Structure formats: C-alpha cells, structure tokens
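Q: What would this chain look like folded?
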Amino acid sequence: MGISQAKKAVLRRKYHVRKKVSGTQDRPRLSVFRSNRHMYAQIIDDVAGATLVSASTRSKGLREQLPNGGDKKAAQVIGEEIAKQAMGVGIQCVCFDRNRYRYHGRVKTLAEAARKAGLVF
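A: My prediction, written as structure tokens:
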C-alpha cells in the first residue's frame, strides 16, 4: 500500500515551503498548524531542535475564552498570545512558516495579529 495522491500533494506543498524557511537562534521559525476545530502556533529554533514558545486554542487559559477554536477570532487571539509570549522570552524577529496552508483566512489573520502585537517577520 502506498501513499494516496492527496497525501502526496500535502507533503509536496509542505516541503516546498519548508525548504525556504528555517529557524535560527537569532530568528526562529513561527510555525502554524490548523485543524477544523483548533489552531496551534509554535516558535521553533531549528538549530537546537527546540520549541521556544507555543500557543493553541486548546491551552487552559484560552479554552474558556473561545467558544469555537477553529475560526478567525480564535486565530487572532492565538496570534496575539504567541507574540506576547515571544516578547516575554525576548524574541522580536521570526520567520513565518505557513506550513502547507495558503496565506489566506485563518493563517493570514494569525500572522497579522502577531505583527500587530509586535512580532517582526
């Protein structure tokens, strides 16, 4: 049994983005994952292989605040939260990894909210 055509297309898009984006200690990578029900964001140092900060709609503080974790309002809250946590650790510049998603809708909303909160990318 092989990999389905849809799965191959997903992996191809993901590799296409990741070959251009890599996080360093000076400029870590802001990686976004979205499912139908939730949004996740992580700031990753690829050289050390470590996640520096993360935020998601499943985290305790945000779960009660958001009735639906998979909409644009949730993406905006996650963008603001990840920027606030990054500033607390001393990260101001990141490179944006949209993963395999188009820069559209929830991914775009998260990125714009992070920028508005002070992250540079």
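The first strand starts at residue 29 and ends at 34.
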